[in-house]
């Protein structure tokens, strides 16, 4: 149950992280944001990132083995990175229609999945 909770919270946090880091690149297409300067965009991104931390911190706290969770610190980080790239790929396909996912992107993603496999592998 803690594993599902942790991964779910990490998924949600990564959605907010992706929106905070890359969502502002679509602001130019929105009428309300045409006159915003960089400072305003930074503050909007910070507000979105706050939501990310609201999910990220509890996910790591409850998921960490030393706190009774099921994952080591290394496992938590690799899960977060795999989720981050997954959410980013979905975000790119849905919101940035001009970006194309090429074969080398897929190969790179597969290497990240391999990293997850090796981090969780018991030797």
UniProtKB/TrEMBL annotation:
The chain crosses the membrane at residues 36-55, 76-96, 102-120. Keywords: Membrane, Transmembrane, Transmembrane helix. InterPro entries: DUF486. It comes from the Bacteria. This is DMT family protein. It comes from Arcticibacter tournemirensis.
